[in-house]
Amino acid sequence: MSNSESLVPLKMLLFSFHATNTIIISFLPLYLEYKGLNGTEIGWVLAIGPLASIFAQPFWGYMSDKYKTVKRMLLICIVGLLISSVLFFQMNTLIAILLMGAVFYFFTSPIGALSDSLAQRRADDLRVSFGTIRTWGSIGFATSSLIVGEILDKFGIQFMIWPYLLFGTIALLVIFRLTDVKVDSEPIKLRDVSVLVKNKPFIIFLLFILFITISHRTNDSFMGLYITQLGGSERLVGLAWFVGVASEAAVFAFAGFWFRKFHSLVFIIIAGILYSIRWFIYSSVEDPMYIIALQGLHGLTFGVFYLAAFDYVTRLIPKLLQATGHLVFFATFFGISGIVGSLMGGALIDSFGGGVLYFVMGCFALLGTISMTIYHVLPYGKEKVRG
């Protein structure tokens, strides 16, 4: 079997999982608004996802390293996703939505991280660019945001569960065709995880990128509501995500051409500067069409930032702890940042509106960029070669 054939199920998994993820990221805030929740309450529900992921990501990463399989963990998580999503979408009170949301996110939050970890290892094994595999996730995200935005605009946000289950079922079917990773090392023990905690450059790096990732995750949660505040529809929300993720897919697809030109940290700093500019502009616009046009910057911010940060973290952590290290990185990037972003964002958009929220996000991104520049100049920025 050729390399390209052996990667087809993995690319299909990334496509279908990120297609489901789009539906949650792009339209769940609008669905919760339809259910009668206000901005602050929506923030609480959206914060449950990242809170669950802080426990779920390291747990599933540890299990994956311990049993030396990514495929079996992905299978368990996707079955959990399908069952818990049906229950989650039937809840109507805030408490019930929060409790079922925690179960739902416990299974869904590690899937992206585990599939990216699998893609990174398969890319290393086959000597191909990680970006060319990961771009299929972005294509799935973009396709879904456009199609589902149109469907929900026509039939109503309350039918959100059906496209979600469709893409989730496709993800389940392709799992069985996946090639698992071969791990030669000894099974991981809990004490090995302490090696990560004692890795100073790794911990400081995670602390500094928090400022930038908080601003990114706040946008994930509230861009849809901000577009509707400015007078846009579900269709425009879908279009905004499509433009953003199409640019992200292009950045991932061409990673092989631009990525090795500079040190990873230089790319992180450039992305941070662009994040700051992007949020300050968003804060001052009055027409949602400007946001859709500026979503083209999403690839140059998230795409560049994510690839560079993922690469840098991979080099900082020993090979034995790759899945665990990647999931700790994910727990920070999407977990802690998501909790702060959802709670802070919900309160700010309720009290002051979207303009003030995006101005605060611009300040956060700027602070993170300055921190990363200092980190790069200091000895901590000089990466250690992994074991």
UniProtKB/TrEMBL annotation:
Signal peptide limits: none
Localisation: Cell inner membrane
Membrane-related topology note: Multi-pass membrane protein
Keyword Iron: no
Positions of transmembrane segments: 12-32, 44-61, 73-89, 95-114, 126-149, 161-179, 200-218, 238-258, 265-282, 288-313, 325-349, 355-378
UniProt KW keywords: Cell inner membrane, Cell membrane, Membrane, Transmembrane, Transmembrane helix, Transport
PANTHER family referenced in this protein's UniProt entry, alphabetically: 3-PHENYLPROPIONIC ACID TRANSPORTER-RELATED, BLL5896 PROTEIN
Protein's name in the database: MFS transporter
Source species of the chain: Virgibacillus byunsanensis
